[in-house]
């Protein structure tokens, strides 16, 4: 039942490249450690890319979009039709991630994994529809096993295309009205937390709305046993097609040896599924930011992830990862462009 590719080995991290990068950092014209996290992230990228001087120039962004049956339970501030409307906005170049992709010179691909209405043919849009949205997980399992397999595969296929384009860094974004409920339910199942800890306003629910969301999540979680050790089953029962596609993409990146820059709450939960399924993926997952969605901090804590930015963003689409790309680029530029003490003739190195 479980797709066999999920069990393929994760790419090893290159410890020799990490050691060479660390040694180079020690020779650069600055007091040791004075560039803080910028040093650590350059060394980490060196280990992942298998080269002393890493780069984050060729960035691939993929936004996975899908609808959620649980939207019918009144858990979002926005109507479900916004999902497909935003897909058209991505393709037309008017969404926040479209602007960031242009500004960064990054390739942006949009994958329809199952909006309620098909968006039609659009430039840059890949159709990998698993169905017209998930079932409402308040009352039944969100996906069948076959749907879960197809959604995971949509993520893997996107990474295959990114690998052909020789990408150095992968960003997975998502769009799906009500997907903070799906992500919160999956995270509650994996972390054995009450929904009051992980459910938040999402697109903008008020306090009463968040209370309704918590009730819906408690009811859904109560229909299942303990899923803390069953990440794929939690994903199938509560997740979305885009969440599963993100999980498939993140795992495929780790298998292919492509570093991932994880976005916000929903992408973070996809990363948590992957980490619980295959803990050896951990080094491949870098974290762009911490979202204003309150549950994200708990998810990052569980992942052991340190976000690069904390800007109060809560948009999704991959935007919180995209805005961290310039930092990675600067970290790489410093790492490979600074003079060493010997080159500059400075004493004390
Ligand atoms: O990435 C985040 O941290 C994040 C936090 C809150 C909302 N979102 C976005 O908002 C949508 C889900 O919000 P909601 O309220 O409909 O569950 C979905 O399209 C996400 O991309 C994203
Ligand atoms: C307008 C809008 C844009 C989004 N992008 C990601 N999630 C979103 C939710 C809404 C409502």
From TrEMBL:
Pfam families: DBI_PRT. Keywords: Cobalamin biosynthesis, Glycosyltransferase, Transferase. SUPFAM superfamilies: Nicotinate mononucleotide:5,6-dimethylbenzimidazole phosphoribosyltransferase (CobT). One of its GO terms (molecular function) is nicotinate-nucleotide-dimethylbenzimidazole phosphoribosyltransferase activity. GO terms for biological process: cobalamin biosynthetic process. The active site is at residue 317. InterPro entries: Nict_dMeBzImd_PRibTrfase, Nict_dMeBzImd_PRibTrfase_bact, Nict_dMeBzImd_PRibTrfase_N, Nict_dMeBzImd_PRibTrfase_sf. It catalyses: 5,6-dimethylbenzimidazole + nicotinate beta-D-ribonucleotide = alpha-ribazole 5'-phosphate + nicotinate + H(+). It comes from the Bacteria. Pathway: Nucleoside biosynthesis; alpha-ribazole biosynthesis; alpha-ribazole from 5,6-dimethylbenzimidazole: step 1/2. Its EC number is 2.4.2.21. It is an enzyme of class 2 (transferase). CDD domains: DMB-PRT_CobT. Catalyzes the synthesis of alpha-ribazole-5'-phosphate from nicotinate mononucleotide (NAMN) and 5,6-dimethylbenzimidazole (DMB). PANTHER family: NICOTINATE-NUCLEOTIDE--DIMETHYLBENZIMIDAZOLE PHOSPHORIBOSYLTRANSFERASE. Belongs to the CobT family. NCBIfam families: cobT_DBIPRT, PRK00105.1. This is Nicotinate-nucleotide--dimethylbenzimidazole phosphoribosyltransferase. It comes from Thioalbus denitrificans. The lineage of its organism: Bacteria, Pseudomonadati, Pseudomonadota, Gammaproteobacteria, Chromatiales.
């Amino acid at each position: 039942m479980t797709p066999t590719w999920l069990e393929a080995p994760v790419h090893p991290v290159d410890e020799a490249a990490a050691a060479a990068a660390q040694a180079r950092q020690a020779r650069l014209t600055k007091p040791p450690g004075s560039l803080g996290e910028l040093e650590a992230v350059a060394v980490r990228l060196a280990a992942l890319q298998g080269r002393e001087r890493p780069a984050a120039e060729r960035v691939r962004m993929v936004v996975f979009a899908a609808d959620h049956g649980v939207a019918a339970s009144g858990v979002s501030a926005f109507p479900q039709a916004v999902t497909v409307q935003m897909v058209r906005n991505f393709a037309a170049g008017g969404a926040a991630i479209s602007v960031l992709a242009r500004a960064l010179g990054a390739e942006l691909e949009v994958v329809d994994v199952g909006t309620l209405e098909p968006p039609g043919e659009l430039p840059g849009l890949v159709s990998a529809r698993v169905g017209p949205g998930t079932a409402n997980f308040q009352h039944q399992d969100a996906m069948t096993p076959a749907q879960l397999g197809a959604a995971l595969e949509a993520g893997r296929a996107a990474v295959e295309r990114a690998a052909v384009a020789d990408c150095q860094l992968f960003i997975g974004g998502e769009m799906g009205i009500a997907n903070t409920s799906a992500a919160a339910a999956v995270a509650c199942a994996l972390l054995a937390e009450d929904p009051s800890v992980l459910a938040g306003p999402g697109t903008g629910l008020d306090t009463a709305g968040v209370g309704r969301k918590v009730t819906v999540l408690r009811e859904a979680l109560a229909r299942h046993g303990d899923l803390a050790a069953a990440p794929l089953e939690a994903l199938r029962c509560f997740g979305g097609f885009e969440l599963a596609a993100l999980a498939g993409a993140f795992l495929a990146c780790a298998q292919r040896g492509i570093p991932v820059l994880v976005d916000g709450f929903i992408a973070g939960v996809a990363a948590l599924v992957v980490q619980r399924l295959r803990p050896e993926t951990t080094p491949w997952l870098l974290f762009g930011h911490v979202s204003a969605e309150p549950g994200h901090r708990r998810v990052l804590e569980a992942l052991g992830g340190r976000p690069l930015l904390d800007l109060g963003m809560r948009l999704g689409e991959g935007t919180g990862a995209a805005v961290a790309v310039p930092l990675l680029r600067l970290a790489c530029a410093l790492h490979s462009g600074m003079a060493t003490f010997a080159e500059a003739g400075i004493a004390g190195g």
